[in-house]
From TrEMBL:
This is Mannan endo-1,6-alpha-mannosidase. The gene is DCW1. Its EC number is 3.2.1.101. The chain crosses the membrane at residues 449-469. Coiled coil: none annotated.
Amino acid sequence: MLLLRPALVLLSAAIGSAAAAQTLDPTDSAALGAAAHQATSNIVNLYSTQLAAGKASQGGFDQSAVSWFASGIIWSQVFGNSYVTKDHSMDNVAGTAISAATYGTTADLLGGALKTVNEKLYGRWNDDMGWWAIGMLSAVDAYGKDALIPGGGKFLDVAALTFNEMYEQWDTQCGGGIYWSRDRSPTQKDADYKSTISNSQFVEMGARLAMLTANQTYLDMAAQAYNWIKSSGVMTAQWVVTDGVHTASCGTVNPTALGYNQGVMLSAMAYMYKATKLQSYLDDAKALVNAAVPVYAPNNIVTEPLCPVGACGRETPMGKPQFVKGLSDVYTVATDAAVKSTIQTVIDTTLASALKNCDANWWCSQDWTNVRAPAQSDPYDQYGTTELLVAAARVHGATAPAGTSAGNLGTAPAGGSSSAATAPGGSSAPASTGAAAKKSSAISISTGGAVSILGSIALGVVAAGLANLV
Ligand SMILES: *[C@@H]1O[C@H](CO)[C@@H](O)[C@H](O)[C@H]1NC(C)=O
């Protein structure tokens, strides 16, 4: 969940002089692969440092500063980079983190028998789990169906279990759909809310699982959720992907429309097309690209209009990159030259703008528009540009630096360990998807082990005071 709060506290202003800007020719596959490696290494090294200091927990970065779901997004980026550029040098760190998140041999994000306790205690919302599972599917892309989570189950099996756990949260209220929170008790905030993000993730997961297992049931379930997204109105006839709907008012969707919701829907469409080869999914993706780009990438630079830098709390930076990722997933399957051109222009223009805030060591800033020096100890600040670089790699192809292509998960990487992916997106699947942000209440574990409940402000409330989108 993305915890969005009003802009009472702006993110700490950049300290010191503006960083020396980076430059990069995205068509230089070695340079792009090296940049993705270095930028991603920075964030992974932050995690390793926190882990060594005892601050990391449950496979996530220090949860007093970084929400657990956000760590799932970051590991998804690491495996996305691993798959697209064949840079496998960070897979063991990411895989071991996923092992911690899935309780080792218990192989379940909800902790097996501890499920009902964990989902309440830790606030394991359905979209939180979806982010992590999508990362697992990207690990499968990189290493194959039988790849093992270090000390745990198979990535594929745990992703499939998560998919089924999410479906436990489907009912016929409002005609279908998966709830946002796993807790239906009346005291649970937004207990009756069916978030679009939980459902778009589910569609993507089902399409990917169907391709990996040849099990038609996954595809049928994904199509069911996709059809609900359309029929419920959470994605409007004008191709606006809204935030969700409360079952107390089925016909009235929450009109808040963030870029990350558009982005994960684009990924879902791309994977549904890949799994079914039905032109209708490509047509839908084209319509959504054309509707969303003018709104979320004015001047071809991706922004989150309702949540500019610092405006929606610490999780603000996790949203914008999902739009870029979704565009890049569509790029890998699109056949329409105009759509591909639109996407490439957005990704290249955004990257060129973002690079001004990357320093010589590839520490970058969440701000892709204005000059802002990177905060080197903040994974939130760093994450977005790592995703942007992988998106550029999906479009242009990229080659990992020498010495990074040996697999280190105990399983040989899919497609061998030495080849560089020069074909956009690699050979088998649009890269991983991630996604979104969330809001709502979350429970975080402080480093001292105490449980603190973070207050929550629904995104819609925040957004209501901000500009009108669409
Ligand atoms: C296909 O997937 C569904 C949904 O998870 C599952 O219930 C079913 O057992 C699977 N079928 C096979 C043959 O594995």
